[in-house]
Fold:
Amino acid sequence: MKALGKEYPLGQLDEMTGRKSGLRTWFSQATLALYELGLKVAYYSSVDLTSFLEGEVFFRLHFGKDAEKILQYSDVPIVTNSIEKVLEYGLFKKKKLLFEDIESHVTQGHIPLLLIDNNKIIGKSDFYQGHCVILTRFDEKHAFYHDS
Structure:
């Protein structure tokens, strides 16, 4: 990945986010890594992150029947640590953004990273598959995104 005029090999990105081989990167980990690179970032969600600080107990409560599948690909201590720092640095805002809010960010020159359920993109009906895409532009009828 190239950003801020510098090349970032995947291994370095894993190191920056705390991701371990075979596990997924949570949005809080990516948010924290971008912030530590010096970028101005904000993490919006309608779900309060504070509850995730309870660790595995809350993950099981929140994700229900899908919890085991999600936990097997998550490093809970790394995730909760990143959430703790995101909250401490004031990067989190509990708010469900409307599309008009996102449009406003784009017109201000911000680059929205959107956390989506990848199942909606690939047409699967399975447990929640958190996935991040970059909104690149929009028109009256469509939103365009980059997915890599």
About this structure: The first helix runs from residue 10 to 17. Residues 110-148 form one domain. The chain has two domains: 2-96, 110-148. The CA atoms of residues 59 and 67 lie 6 Å apart.
